Amino acid sequence: MRIILAPDKFKGSLSAPDVAKHLAAGLRSAQDGLEIDLMPVADGGEGTVDAVVTSGFSRVSVTVQGPTGQPVSADFAIKDNVAVIEMAAASGLAVLPNGELAPLAATTYGTGQLVAAAMDRGCTEIVLGVGGSATTDGGAGMLAALGATFKDSAGRHLPPGGGALATVTNIDLGKLDPRMGAVRFTLASDVDNPLLGPDGAATIFGPQKGATTAHVAHLEKSLERYFRVMANALGTAAVDALDAPGAGAAGGTGYAALAVLSAKRRSGIEVILELTGLAEKIHGADLVVTGEGSLDEQSLFGKAPMGVASAARAAGVPVVAVCGRTTLSAETLGKAGFAHSYALTSLEPDTKLCMQNAGVLVTEIGALIGARLGQIGQEEESSYV
Questions:
Q1: What is each CA distance from 185 to 78, 114, 256, 258, 298, in whole angstroms?
Q2: Does 137 share its domain with 58?
Q3: Last residue within a domain, chosen from 204, 239, 266
Q4: 134 FRET partner, CA 20 to 30 A, in 2, 65, 94, 296?
Q5: Which helix (H) or strand (E) holds 213?
Q6: Is residue 272 part of a domain?
């Protein structure tokens, strides 16, 4: 039997490659002679670089400016002329010093440095995976790293962060890196929020990055001013991008990507399926195993496991889900295309212990799947009839 293991990360416990390795160990302990392909996935956030590296991209490490100005080592991936950038590696919550949130001051400057590093290596297609950011600066930091300038009424350069955009009066895009004109950018994001308003970047995502009610109000005003000045500098493209799906992604970085970089927004998992060739490799497999840490209502809206399940179902291959926990009913999971689901909490109800021992538990789940491989295939085949 040929089995494809395509899980996302179990956030706080295991990376996607680690989940796949533990599943493979469990499967092999239960069945001899299995052909197992490890193809971890991601949806544009943390783990995106890991996913494409597993499928043949090369990892590149560079030192960039972190979200609060400290140097951080950040990886991106390249293959031929294509680069995959994981914004979280340079400007994410996970790289904040001591985990201290900085809702007004966090900058996307390091993400712009990753874009420049990719162009330095001759890349003409750049995928921006923008999940997990610590920032709400509208992508201004990213643009600054690429040559844009942001000044106040006194002609002073603004300090980093979304909070400072409240005083922006001049945005100069004239010195943007000219190489960007030859680059095709893709915004890999499942977020469809606009830049401003009750569903915008500050209101919806600011609190996740440490913003108080007062911070949210300030950031909203800052982003509104940023938009107005950007519209003066850029014209129609800035206006068109304001309410475009994905403009509010990563604290408004989506807006900068759409308006200034002329990026095209696509589903993160759709991009990963294409870059890794997973959709094609599923054909002819006997089983696909996917999953993530928490399989819940949010998962149903474009998260990685649903994208994998859709591809598997299109190929007529049964798919099962493995997760830390799930809040979804068997009926809901069935409608989503899953033949069965396995939650670590079924083996260890204590969530703290479950996370601490996730590797061992995932291996046990792999063995359970291995023990009933024939049944899974038969069940799924009959349900397609």
A1: 14, 13, 11, 9, 26
A2: yes
A3: 266
A4: 296
A5: helix 213-234
A6: no
32 falls within a domain:
yes
For residues 242 and 286, state if they share a domain: no
What number of CA atoms fall less than 13 Å from residue 150's CA on the CB side?
28
Q: What strands lie across the sheet with 319-326, from one edge to the other?
A: 35-38, 2-7, 287-295, 319-326, 340-343
**In a shared domain, residues 148 and 227:** yes
Residue with tokens 């069940």: 379
- Report whether 171 contacts 240 (CB < 8 A): no
Number of residues assigned to the chain? 385
The total number of structural domains in the chain stands at 2
pTM given for the model: 0.91
Q: Residue 132 has which token pair? A: 């997990």
* Band of residue 377 on the pLDDT scale cut at 50, 70, 90: low
Domain final residue pick, 266, 301, 323: 266
326 shares its domain with 242: no
Neighbours of 208 (CB within 10 A): 15
Residue in 167, 143, 155, 146 with CA at minimum distance from that of residue 228: 167
Q: Do residue 91 and residue 172 come from a single domain? A: yes
CATH of the domain at 213: 3.90.1510.10
Here the CATH number for the domain that contains residue 32 is 3.40.50.10350
User: Which pLDDT value is given to residue 298?
Assistant: 84
Q: Are 145 and 110 in contact (CB under 8 A)?
A: yes
- The radius of gyration of the chain's CA atoms, rounded to the nearest angstrom, is 22
What is residue 376's three-state secondary structure?
A: helix
- Cβ pair 365, 345 in contact under 8 A: no
**Helices 16-30/358-371 angle, 10° precision:** 40
Q: Please list the residues that pair with 283 across neighbouring strands.
A: none
Please check whether residue 363 is in contact with residue 23, taking contact to mean a CB–CB distance below 8 angstroms: yes
Cα torsion 40, 266, 244, 145: sign? positive
Residue 320 is part of which domain span? 2-41+282-384
* Contact between residue 75 and residue 89 where contact means Cβ atoms under 8 Å apart: yes
Residue type present at position 96: L
Residue 376 clears pLDDT 90, i.e. is over it: no
Query: Which residues lie across from 2 on neighbouring strands?
Result: 35
For residue 276, being part of any structural domain is answered with: no
Are 24 and 86 members of one domain? no
State residue 384's pLDDT score. 26
Please report whether residue 275 resides in a domain. Answer: no
pLDDT in tens, 55-112: 899 999 999 999 999 999 999 999 999 999 999 999 999 999 999 999 999 999 999 9
